[in-house]
Amino acid sequence: MSHATKPAHCVAAGTPVAARSPLRRIPGWLRPGWNHLPGHRPRSAAEGRRVVLRDGSKVLIRQVQPADAALLADGFARLSPQSRRMRFLARKDQLSAAELRYLTDIDHHDHEALGALDQADGRGVGVARYVRDAGDPRAAEIAVTIVDDWQGRGLGTELLTRLSGRARSEGIHRFTALVADDNTAMAGLLRNMSASLVGRSPGTVEYEITLMPPMPALAPAAGA
């Protein structure tokens, strides 16, 4: 399951977009053993959470860090040509050093990425990320990529749900996503997240997700 994302401004059909939107060019992958994350990040997000998927497989979901660049290219190589096309909306054969740096050296505020590790062997199996829209700080474009043999297990839903929580905590109210019109798996995931179809172009459809605000903390009961 893969999809590309759309910046806030419209792009004319046929216009090359890879140079304008880093999310369209680069998937994110995690390096096994990336548990030593900088201490300035929240402990729960930095150390991650273990999740059991609907088929019983287990993953660890946590933040991406700069040291993960070594296996970012490896994860890209594990995508099928079809998944690459779904992800980039075009052919993509390799990642540059600059692209690898961009998707691993992130600030976890305007740019966040959560990756999933297979607990059985430590390999990266999926990633979801957002990049805040410079023109609308309450909006962000998203990308989700799942390695082929992990698709259909519910991992995309887990990643996107947790990414939504991170986005809300950073003041983001809305996600946008541009999806290949034949990417039925990604379209289904977005619809399950209450996404609205907001536009169509040749070969693509555009979705928008409104994020619910964080729940306020409850005041302690009297006498508690």
Structural summary, described in words:
The chain has helices spanning 22-25, 43-47, 69-77, 81-88, 97-102, 155-169, 184-192, and strands spanning 2-3, 49-52, 58-63, 111-118, 124-133, 136-146, 174-180, 196-201, 204-210. The protein is of the alpha+beta class and 224 residues long. It has a single domain (2-210), classed as Aminopeptidase (3-Layer(aba) Sandwich). Strands 1, 2, 3, 4, 5, 6, 7, 8 and 9 form a nine-stranded mixed beta sheet that branches. Strand 2 (49-52) and strand 3 (58-63) form a beta hairpin. The chain starts with a strand and ends in a 14-residue tail after the last strand. Residues 5-22 and 25-43 have low confidence and may be disordered.
Output the number of helix runs.
7
What fraction of residues sit in β-strands? 25-35%
Q: Give the SSE order as H and E letters.
A: EHHEEHHHEEEHEHEE
Mean pLDDT: 79
- Please give the radius of gyration in angstroms: 17 Å
Helix content: 25-40%
Please report the first level of CATH classification, the CATH class: Alpha Beta
The N- to C-terminal Cα distance equals 47 Å
The name of the CATH architecture is 3-Layer(aba) Sandwich
Low-confidence stretches: 5-22, 25-43
Summarize the structure.
By secondary structure, this protein is α+β, with helices and mostly antiparallel strands. Helices cover 25% and strands 27% of the residues.
Helix/strand layout:
Blueprint: E1 2-3, H1 22-25, H2 43-47, E2 49-52, E3 58-63, H3 69-77, H4 81-88, H5 97-102, E4 111-118, E5 124-133, E6 136-146, H6 155-169, E7 174-180, H7 184-192, E8 196-201, E9 204-210
Parallel strand pairs: 6-7
Antiparallel strand pairs: 1-6, 2-3, 3-4, 4-5, 5-6, 7-9, 8-9
